[in-house]
Write a structure and sequence with these properties.
It is built from eight helices and eleven strands. By secondary structure, it is α+β, with helices and mostly antiparallel strands.
């Protein structure tokens, strides 16, 4: 197998059927191998501001830096997450109306076949590999931690009124640590970065079925969003698809 992999990407976002605004944000550059999805939280427009700051900081710090960072890319990406956290805290201190704002973050950075996934919060990354969907990230949420400890079943977690309680987010602590996962991409692998507005409405099996189709990436994204809205659309919905191509 050739070592060089190229990537194609597309994204879609929607406020859903019940929210009056969209606090999700995303950014990507297939040329630079940087992809980010954030889900903001906070009163008024604070969530929108927090998620936008995080995306902007990640893109600013990592775009065009792939060759320069080289083998240190995962460290560079972790530092970018910390910088995004600091930027959100700094902005919240400058305006009391923004106090307490925060955001989740899931990011993928690619350097040829090497891929690093970082996450803070409950926005997720999946990979469709050989037509099988696997969840790469682990949610930093109260219910998912209960599931991992065997205190709650996945079905109970999906129904729990506490399912929106996250245990780690950018902007809420002076120091933040992202989980980092390293993978090797193969031709045809399809990565999905998404906010919980998608995963709260659709099961993994439904997501797998929707993206395991020979369609353009933008149509797959639209299909995911529309399916989540049809299932309830109770939150903002964002999905970003990244395909490894020859």
């Amino acid at each position: 197998m050739a070592s060089v992999v190229h990537y194609a990407a597309a994204a879609a976002t929607d406020r859903g059927r019940k929210r009056t605004s969209n606090e999700d944000a995303f950014g990507f550059s297939a040329e630079d191998g940087v992809y980010v999805v954030c889900d903001g939280m906070g009163g008024a427009a604070a969530g929108e501001i927090a998620s936008a700051i995080a995306v902007d900081e990640m893109m600013r710090l990592l775009r065009g830096r792939i060759e320069e960072w080289g083998a240190t890319m995962p460290r560079a990406a972790e530092e970018a997450v910390c910088a995004a956290n600091e930027a959100i805290i700094s902005r919240s201190k400058s305006d009391e109306k923004l106090n307490g704002m925060g955001t989740t973050l899931v990011s993928l950075v690619a350097e040829e076949r090497r891929v690093w996934v970082l996450n803070v919060g409950d926005s997720r990354c999946y990979r469709l590999h050989n037509r099988i969907l696997e969840q790469i990230t682990q949610d930093h949420s109260l219910v998912e931690e209960q599931v991992r400890q065997g205190r709650m079943t996945p079905a109970e977690a999906r129904r729990s009124p506490l399912r929106n309680v996250i245990t780690r987010a950018l902007g809420t602590e002076s120091r933040i640590t992202a989980d980092v996962f390293e993978l090797e991409a193969e031709f045809g692998d399809l990565f999905l970065l998404c906010s919980d507005g998608l995963t709260h409405e659709l099961t993994d099996a439904q997501i797998e079925h929707l993206i395991d189709a020979d369609l353009p990436l933008d149509e797959l994204c639209s299909g995911l969003v529309e399916a989540a809205k049809k299932a309830g659309g109770s939150d903002n919905i964002t999905c970003l698809l990244v395909r490894a191509e020859g």
